[in-house]
Design brief:
heterodimer; A: MetI-like fold; 15 helices; 0% strand; flat; B: MetI-like fold; 2 domains; 14 helices; 77% helix; globular
């Protein structure tokens, strides 16, 4: 079905299914094997995932709360926060509307080229963020195709906010759509068809029948989309021009501070983004829990899908 | 199902498909086409000169070589982590499960400076490695560390659901027929996991090749030593060499498309092998 859905975020397990394996002789390892595998994987986890996260906060507070706080309320930092929020506030709703629209067309109807369309929607994930920035420079940059025309009307896109928004839209493009497409495909269209037959119009059907069914998936996609929108670095770096207090998003501000050897300040700003990541993961885990409601409904869901 | 193909009960097909195609074309397809059109402004010889310059070739070697190594490390340890999360109960499991996705959620620039803080010569881990003669930061090894970080969730999250869906009966049958635990893993479990494992590997590799933010801080970006291909594009752009940047971008894009095809094929294989459609 959705072979092009390259990554399955909703796959995390709910509840502890390990008992199923640990209670049976045949699916159990001898203790030393178990503890070796567990030891190696948890050490790997601690070194590669946990330590970098801890390092951000420890380095941020190395010079005390005062330095930390003054880095955050610095004029340039506040501007970066504002710009980051603006870029996310524009790109997330755009991709939300697109994602719902694409999922409706793909999940509720049969048409030729559907598979290709799903692959194309996933495309921004396989493109290097640097190239995502480059494509807009080639079109809107001073040497780009629309460059002279834009200069004539004094419209700035590259090295300005519109370019940052465009690059952010590109890199966050597939998040909502890829979350909704498999979900809506699995749910089928019987409920919507019943609503239409009973006299509801298209909008009512979507609002009262489809939306309640997809709300968790939708929320999930939006959270991930937002995290990426606020954290994008490579693509935004290419189009921003790094003008302090003008085109500096939070991740770019981290880079500037770091390159100026203001490490404590760089990590202080970075800790804001790390907090955002933690909140994202917490909400994501909560949504998964709500959406699956334990393993039982998840299996029922899979039966319906097959 | 076939009935609605001839007569659509639900409204909005043309509207939603139209919006989708228009938005997709404007944001993704047309701008990507721009790269290929721009590169056509170079003659074949110029194009070849740009993409085969020694400094650029060194970046391919580093980007592809280290990405392969990172994806391999992720495949091994990602499988172990997924196995631990599915098969064993241990305290803090839910916390660890949630944190596996950290590299997806943590902005790459933050990951980059955090890893540098750990692996620099006087860093948390670097200070113990330095006396052993192991330098991580500003060396290809640093690039490897960053790429292992960002690629890990891809393997865990593709293998985990397949492991969870595995029936215990297969293993019980094999055990009752006298198979050893290792034989069961090798001949019963691994064949079922293989397509997903390869998919995770390919996803981690694809992401690693294009990765920029987390790498540039720890890599030090020394020409011919620790420069990655995406950085080369930025360097060319900063020199206003748009055509040169585009030529390298074309090489990377073609590779990305090939990888995307490979991943789609692998996922179709996973679906066939396990009967799952996701």
């Amino acid at each position: 079905m959705s072979a092009a859905t390259t990554l399955n975020w909703t796959a995390a397990p709910r509840g502890d299914a390990a008992i199923r394996f640990e209670s049976r002789e045949a699916t159990r390892e001898v203790p030393w094997v178990k503890w070796t595998i567990l030891g190696i994987s948890l050490t790997f986890f601690a070194v590669f995932l946990l330590m970098p996260l801890v390092a951000v906060f420890v380095e941020a507070l190395r010079k005390g709360w005062e330095t930390y706080w003054s880095a955050l309320i610095h004029e340039d930092a506040l501007w970066a926060i504002k710009l980051t929020l603006t870029a996310a506030a524009i790109s997330v709703p755009l991709n939300l509307v697109f994602g719902v629209s694409a999922a409706w067309a793909i999940a509720k109807f049969e048409f030729r080229g559907k598979h290709l369309l799903i692959t194309l929607i996933d495309l921004p994930f396989s493109v290097s963020p640097v190239i995502a920035g480059l494509i807009y420079v080639l079109i809107f940059g001073a040497q780009g195709w629309l460059g002279p025309w834009l200069a004539e009307y004094d419209i700035k896109i590259i090295f300005a906010v519109p370019g940052i928004v465009l690059a952010t839209v590109f890199v966050t493009f597939p998040f909502v759509a890829r979350e909704l497409i498999p979900l809506m495909q699995a749910q089928g269209r019987e409920e919507e068809e019943a609503a239409i037959v009973l006299g509801a119009n298209g909008w009512q059907t979507f609002w009262y029948v489809t939306l309640p069914n997809i709300k968790w998936g939708l929320l999930y996609g939006v959270i991930l989309c937002n995290a990426r929108a606020m954290g994008e670095f490579g693509a935004v770096s290419v189009v921003s021009g790094h003008i302090r207090g003008q085109t500096n998003t939070l991740p770019l501000h981290v880079e500037i501070l770091y390159n100026e050897y203001q490490f404590a300040a760089a990590f202080a700003v970075a800790s804001l983004l790390a907090l955002l990541a933690l909140v994202t993961l917490a909400v994501k885990t909560w949504v998964e829990h709500r959406a699956s409601g334990g393993n039982q409904s998840r299996e029922a869901h899979q039966d319906a899908a097959s | 199902m076939s009935a609605s193909r001839t007569f659509r009960v639900l409204p909005g097909f043309h509207l939603t498909l139209g919006c989708t195609l228009a938005y997709l074309s404007l944001i993704v397809l047309l701008p990507l086409a721009a790269v290929f059109l721009k590169s056509a402004s170079l003659s074949a010889a110029e194009f070849w000169n740009v993409i085969s310059a020694p400094r650029v070739v060194a970046t391919y070697r580093l980007s592809f070589g280290v990405s392969l190594a990172a994806a391999t490390i992720n495949a091994v340890f990602g499988l172990m982590l997924a196995w631990s999360l599915v098969r064993y109960s241990f305290p803090g499991k839910r916390f660890i499960d949630a944190l596996i996705d950290l590299p997806f959620a943590l902005p790459t620039a933050v990951a980059g400076i955090a890893l540098t803080a750990l692996y620099a010569k006087n860093g948390w881990i670097g200070q113990y490695l330095d006396p052993l003669g192991i330098q991580v930061a500003f060396k290809p090894l640093g690039v490897l560390v960053a790429l292992v970080f960002i690629g890990l969730p891809f393997v865990v999250r593709t293998v985990q659901p397949i492991l969870e869906d595995l029936d215990t009966e297969l293993e019980e049958a094999a055990a009752s027929l006298g198979a050893q635990r290792w034989q069961i893993f090798r001949h019963v479990i691994l064949p079922v996991l293989l397509p997903a494992l390869l998919t995770g590997f390919a996803l981690a590799f694809a992401r690693a090749v294009g990765e920029y933010g987390s790498v540039i801080f720890i890599a030090g970006n020394i020409p011919m030593v620790s420069e990655i291909t995406p950085l080369m594009i930025i360097t060319k752009l900063e020199q206003y060499d748009y055509a040169g940047a585009t030529a390298i971008a074309v090489v990377m894009l073609v590779l990305s498309f090939l990888l995307l095809l490979l991943i789609n094929g692998l996922q179709a294989w996973t679906a066939k092998r396990t009967g799952r459609d996701r």
